[in-house]
Amino acid sequence: MLLLHVRPGQVQRLPTAPDGAPADLDATIVLFTPDFPPRLPASIPVSDDPFGPPFWQLGTGDHDLFRHALADLATEYADLPAQDPEITKELLRQLLAGILLRIARLPTPDGSAQSHATQEPYRLFQHELERSFAVLRQAHDYATRLGYSLKTLNRVCQRATGHTAKQLVDARVTLEAKRMLAHTDLPVAAISHRLGFTEPTNFSKFFTRATSQTPGAFRAAQS
């Protein structure tokens, strides 16, 4: 069983059959607003953490636990019209919190189980990268903003992802470029400007080096 956590603002591309038709997937989907679950401790950033793991491959034991928990949630939701609405809504909140807490104690997909304190420098870098990737592209600038040495920043990034801070910065810029090329009609020069490149040719060289495709070729393939 694959447990997939799609957070606000994220887009998922689901698998398709060889002929391009939607794949035959069997899934239980739980949709909720960020303010519906009861407030969880700050050290357990599950539902509103944009940088948490996107998926977990569940073993048999965890599969059964989540299957029963989701079945309880579905039963209470179906009974909502027939029961006291306030009590049932609160019960739904608590059942959802239980599922989120079960997710929080799962090991990360790579099998590690780092504490929140250990992850904190990397999490700070993630947030700063999300704010600044269009204006800062040098790893030492991020290290300076966060108050770490470049060596320390690279160490925490490699421990969390296996990549250096510079590689993660370039990957984030490349991802945003792909999104704009695939989902907007903006000219390549405009995308280049939005991502902080001084010249469109510099952007094209960067994108081609990162993806082995020119921006134009990538856009044509997506359409």
Automatic annotation (TrEMBL):
Domain (HTH araC/xylS-type) spans 119-221
Name the Gene3D superfamilies on file. Homeodomain-like (1.10.10.60)
Record-linked InterPro entries: Homeodomain-like_sf (IPR009057), HTH_AraC (IPR018060)
Q: Does the keyword Transcription apply?
A: yes
Q: Which UniProt keywords apply?
A: DNA-binding, Transcription, Transcription regulation
Against Pfam families, the record matches this protein to: HTH_18
Q: Which domain of life is it from?
A: Bacteria
Name of the protein described by the UniProt record: HTH araC/xylS-type domain-containing protein
Q: Which taxonomic lineage does the organism of this UniProt entry have?
A: Bacteria, Bacillati, Actinomycetota, Actinomycetes, Kitasatosporales
